[in-house]
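Project outcomes to date are best conveyed with an example. Our students and postdoctoral researchers have been running inverse folding experiments weekly, and each run begins with a structure described purely in tokens. The record below, which covers 96 residues, was selected by the lab manager from last quarter's runs and is presented without edits.
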């Protein structure tokens, strides 16, 4: 029974790590996008995709959206790190 629980915990841990890594990659993509937008010319058009339409946004709106997404990703990454730590503690207790 302990082997099954250890397997389940390892599987959960792997999923949490993969999700955290995916979010960290998205954070890097946001940094790159912000750099592109910040360095773009004043007259350049910026578009944002919604569920079924694409709209033009200002440079400030685009940067605000990136900042909101960055805060959301940071919060989710912290939650995942906490969950990862909890799973690792459970695994260490199980092995001991």
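After processing, the design step wrote out the following sequence:
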């Amino acid at each position: 029974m302990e082997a099954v629980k250890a397997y389940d915990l390892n599987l959960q841990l792997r999923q949490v790590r993969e999700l955290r890594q995916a979010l960290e990659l998205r954070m890097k993509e946001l940094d790159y996008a912000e750099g592109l937008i910040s360095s773009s010319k004043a007259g350049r058009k910026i578009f944002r995709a919604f569920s079924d339409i694409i709209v033009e946004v200002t440079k400030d709106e685009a940067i605000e959206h990136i900042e909101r997404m960055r805060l959301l990703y940071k919060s989710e990454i912290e939650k995942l790190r906490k969950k990862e730590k909890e799973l690792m503690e459970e695994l260490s207790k199980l092995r001991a």
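The chain has a mean pLDDT of 92. Helices lie at 2-39, 59-95. The training component of this project remains on track.
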